[in-house]
Amino acid sequence: MFTVGAGVGGAVLLGAPGSASAAPELWSRPGTVGAPGVAGLHLQFGADASREVVVSWHTTAPVSRPRVLLGSPAGGLGLTVPADTTTYRDARSGTEVRVHHARLGSLRPDTEYVYAAVHDGAPPELGTVRTAPRGRAPFRFTSFGDQGTPTLGKQVNGTWVNDNLGSPAAGDVTAAVEAAAPLFHLVNGDLCYANLATDRVRTWSDWFNNNTRSARYRPWMPAAGNHENELGNGPIGYGAYQTYFSVPDSGADPELRGLWYAFTAGSVRVISLNNDDVAYQDGGNSYVHGYSGGAQRRWLEAELAASRSNPDIDWIVVCMHQVVVSTVDKANGADLGIRENWVPLFDRYGVDLVVCGHEHHYERSHPIRGQQPNDTRTPMPVDTRTDVVDTSRGTVHMVIGGGGTSVPSNHLFFSPARCRVITGVGAPDPNTGKRAPIYVLEDAPWSAVRDPDHSYGFAAFDVDPGKPGGTTSISVTYYAVSDPYGTATPVDHFTLTRPRGAR
Question: How far does the signal peptide extend, from start to end residue (predicted)?
């Protein structure tokens, strides 16, 4: 592979033994008091996951020449790619955070790369990444939402406590995802709950420090949840989230950049949405319902139409936070705003799979297509088989909200299954400013599988491209995680199937 070692005069030399293709880079070793280190190293895919990767890290002090050295396991590090720096100032603490993004383009599909992230005066942080296959090929991705951090954020009466709804399980589930070795991981919103924390910047740092042990090796692709809404950070509260991640460009206005996006891996098109735009629930630090003025919906419809008409795309997977379905009591509930705005589009363009968080448990729906003509627009199941599901007939919704939060909801299931649907909100409370949800209770004919026994876990999706003229499938397994070593126990297994494209 590559070498990292001491060079002449206390410097550090990166290069490949015997490689003449590119001169190695030399930089000074930092002293006892030097530049800040490379913190929170993580990856994101570009719009074409077979050719584009972004390497990102953050500091709270300015640094010189942030850059990534890129190479191959056999050839070592040779190419230097400069990083662009974006910033935000946390409105609560006044701390300015600098996030450095190096965009690696023109990569080879389905290829392993090695890299080192570095800036002047700091030791390098190393990682690897594999680009997605181009065209139809097998691969795995994983998903969970609602994580928090396994760290303690403030003192109460002299005792340290976690103040962002995290728990030790937030570390356990990361270990389990890394053991599963997916090509990429989808984070279904509510990443670190910084908006609840005493120190929002430290909470983001703790989240990245926990997850860099996976996210430096495979892209963690996020959707913004309601707890990414931090009052004062950017025009609508997502300034921290928008700065930490450099996701594919959707053409949104600058203040909305990164809140919705899409990328292609193999024959799978992944679409990430921000549901606070359409959800009725008041769940963040500020009420931003309708913030895009319909821009996100227009983009989504165009994106779905293009994806479904693309002969190279078999699967459309939507990653978002708030849910269309849920059968627990005393939690958040399903949201009518999403049923009104997104579900008709999912039906019209044949979305195969929706992964969510928000509710802190695991459950999945039967394939649904169409809605009952009632006040809650109850989704209608098209089949009740639970082992093999034809998604060309309907969309499967999965709630995967057991990423580590300290307030799981798996013990709150209605029996028999029912659903509380938020149909609107009341007037703001004069003391808190929050708008209380208005609930309507409905039957849940769409409910397929629920897990009342396990609080934490993730789902793995293994894509099988199939053969021309036949079907393609995704084998889905939900794993419970219950120890600090990330031991994963299968709880639910089923297969999604649909006709394969003609090519």
Answer: 1-22
Residues whose CB is less than 8 angstroms from the CB of residue 282 and which lie 6 or more positions away in sequence, other chains included = 289, 425, 434, 435, 436, 437
Task: Please state the rounded mean pLDDT for residues 494-501.
Answer: 95
Mean pLDDT of 246-258: 97
Please name which of 445, 460, 470, 464 lies closest in space to residue 491, comparing C-alpha atoms: 460
Residue 383 to residues 111, 219, 354, 447: CA-CA distances in angstroms? Answer: 40, 34, 17, 11
pLDDT tens for 277-287 read 999 999 999 99
- Please state whether beta strands 184-187 and 139-144 pair in parallel, antiparallel, or not at all (unpaired): parallel
Question: Which 3 state secondary structure label does DSSP give 347?
Answer: helix
User: CA-CA distance, 378 to 350, in Å (whole number)?
Assistant: 18
Taken in order of first residue, the domains within the chain and their CATH numbers are: 3-129 (2.60.40.380), 132-499 (3.60.21.10)
The contacts of residue 381 (CB under 8 Å, 6+ apart) are 365, 366, 367, 368, 394, 445, 446, 448
Tokens 């190695």 locate to 24
SS3 195: helix
The pairing of strands 447-451 and 362-365 is antiparallel
**Angstrom distance (rounded) from CA 433 to CA 419:** 26
Averaged pLDDT score across all residues of the chain = 93
Token reading at 346? 């999912």
223: which residues sit within 8 A by CB, 6+ positions away?
145, 186, 187, 188, 189, 272, 273, 274, 319, 320, 321
Query: Helix, strand, or coil here: 215?
Result: helix
Q: Are 193 and 227 in contact (CB under 8 A)?
A: yes
Per the structure block, which two tokens stand in for 204? 């983001």
pLDDT digits (tens, 9 = 90+) for 422-462: 999 999 999 999 999 999 999 999 999 999 999 999 999 99
Say if residue 416 is preceded by a cis peptide, omega within 30 of 0: yes
CA distance 76 to 70: 8
Supply the pLDDT for residue 503. 66
Helices 169-180, 200-215: axis angle to 10 degrees equals 30
pTM of the shown model: 0.93
